[in-house]
Amino acid sequence: MNKLKVALLAIVAFAFGNARADEGMWLLQMMKEQHLVDMMKESGLKLEADDLYSPNKVSIKDAIGIFGRGCTGEIISPEGLILTNHHCGYGSIQMLSSVEHDYLTDGFWAKNRGEELPVPGLTFVFVERIVDVTDVVNEKIKKGEISENASFTPQALNKIADELYKKSDLYNKSGISVQLLPFFAGNKFYMFYKKTYSDVRMVAAPPSSVGKFGGETDNWTWPRHTGDFSMFRIYADAKGEPADYDASNKPLQTKKHLAISIKGLEEGDYAMIMGFPGSTSRYLTVSEVEERMEASNEPRITIRGARQDVLKKEMNASDKIRIQYANKYAGSSNYWKNSIGMNKAIIDNDVLGDKAKQEAQFAQFAKEKGHVDYQNVVTKINHVVEQEKPIVYQMTVLVESFFSGVEFISPSFVFQDLRKALEEKDNQSVDSLKSQIRETYEAIHNKDYDHEVDRKVAKVLFPLYKDLIEESLRPDIFKFIEEKYKGDFDKFIDEMYDNSIMASKDNLEKFLSKPSIKALDKDLSLRYSQSVIDKYINLSAAVSTFSDEKDLLHKTYVRGLSEMKLPKPSYPDANFTIRLTYGNVKSYSPKDGVFYNYYTTTKGILEKENPEDREFVVPGKLKELIVNNDYERYALPNGDMPVCFLTTNDITGGNSGSPVLNAHGELIGTAFDGNWESLSGDINFDDDLQRCINLDVRYILFILEKLGDVGYLIDEMTIVE
After folding, report:
1. DSSP code of 708?
2. SS3 letters for 500-527?
3. How many CA atoms lie within 13 A of 43 on its CB side?
4. Quick one: CATH architecture of 26-123+199-279+575-716?
5. 3-state SS assignment for residue 677
6. pTM higher than 0.70 for the full model?
7. Considering just the CA atoms, what is the radius of gyration of the chain in Å?
8. Mutual orientation of helices 451-468 and 489-499 as an angle, nearest 10°?
9. Mean pLDDT of 343-359
10. How confident is the model over 602-634, as pLDDT tens digits?
11. Among the four 325, 339, 548, 646, which has the fewest Cβ within 10 Å?
12. Under DSSP, is residue 366 helix (H, G, I), strand (E, B) or coil?
């Protein structure tokens, strides 16, 4: 039996009762060959495999899609109604907000279809088909049409995908696109046919005092009382096909929507989640985990913390700035705190110790098998990491400071083209580039950018970068500031933010009225931008070389680990493709003397209330409903109102907004967070501590009906009592 067949057997093999029930982001297309549903039934599932996913008929998979750029959403009515998280819809809510219409603060409730608001750029994507193309890719490698390294690259895989797409019956169908990706570190390949709808409208969003209740303080923690949901609707043309926004478009008549159960849940109940987890790294070595901690997480924590201090002060001082920077701050803060929690959990949960044990077991397995590649692979990975780690650190500091941190950066390539046109006295090209430069200016100075706020951020991050990176490794701009400004960052930044071509509309138009090479040479923003871009290109090239080496080594390592686990089945790292995870409703005890119940109620909202802290403000109407126990059919048997609950499901970023389903495939909640004690879960799953934090669907319906007064939305849902 050849190595490839052994690898594939290792990947798909199954033995009853051996696999942990909760760990695993399983591929829908492999459920049958891995006998996954048999394991799920042992945990309580009442459905068959084809009910969850079938290539030949409608299944639960068809009610779930990609919401926006990085979340999951589910269809909860026959008329295209989407449920997702508030934090997933936050960018759209912020985009549509203004000081006059502050939907972030006040919430938004469309009272009829005519009030639903179009969201420019927002999409919803369904997975139409999944095809195993492993043999196709391997044959191209064997024939030398692509290298093994190229099989990890989007360029090569996109070319193959395009070839296969043109031969399919879905070619040139409305809204269809394809994506081909490696799985199991390049040991398998799948191609996804996707259907994208681009007319998506905002329907309902609670005020942030509900949707973000607890804010940064409660993020990644339990107990939670956050009403983290929002609703949108898909519109299509008269034929039900994807179309850009048009007032004549109609709500999409969906082929599948999820029924909603308000029957309640108990500890131990079966729970599964289907969605699009973004990225995990479960097969790292000890050295790679240390690299993640020290070269990525630590500098990210330092730099984002410094930037967020500036933003928070400015946002607290101005409603305009608060709305402009709300989504940026939330996005930055989320993974700032995640990085803090991950590093802590890696230490607290002895992840390095677990990885070391795995490596020792693998070394013994490789020795017994006499497999030379397996015997040497970890040593080779560690050697690459040793060289790569300082480069990754430099890259993280550069990106966090000058690409994610400071926003004001002039697109030097546009001005390089202008310089060339000026040198060649090509007036036609100069005129064309003027228009392009004006468009670029508008893109930089967009409605969510404030030049003075960004100036303050720059004054913090420039000197911080200097402290974090030794002199010989910094971009050339730092030597220029030292020589011309005697190291006075504030003076340099003020001149750049005041006088650069792209600093203001007046400066831009003055330059464009008489563009010159001399003005380009003097421009501080262009000098700064080119400097950091050059440094980024150099670091990127170095990191790419190391990544190429590690790709092939990980292909061997993951193949070996899969063989070592036999007869247990294996699952691939998350890569924002549709997955299923299953487990149970379950409480937990993170440390001695501490016990966390599996659900929270509205009592906790009033216990946390603090009118002086924006994160813990309780809307007056909601407080009145809670005080009066005005919950009707959504209450627990004892009269309490549930808010959030815990399950043992294995999720990560990208799963936000994913449906939590009971044993019958009915919606009981939406996943929105993980718990603090297990934030090392992207690297190492902890069966005792790992919990998924979910919003109870009964609280969603309660808020819709009682706070939003949009009970008509509930009428279009299928409710199971």
Report:
1. S
2. CHHHCHHHHHHHHHCCCHHHHHHCHHHH
3. 30
4. Beta Barrel (2.40)
5. helix
6. yes
7. 27
8. 140
9. 96
10. 999 999 999 999 999 999 999 999 999 999 999
11. 548
12. helix
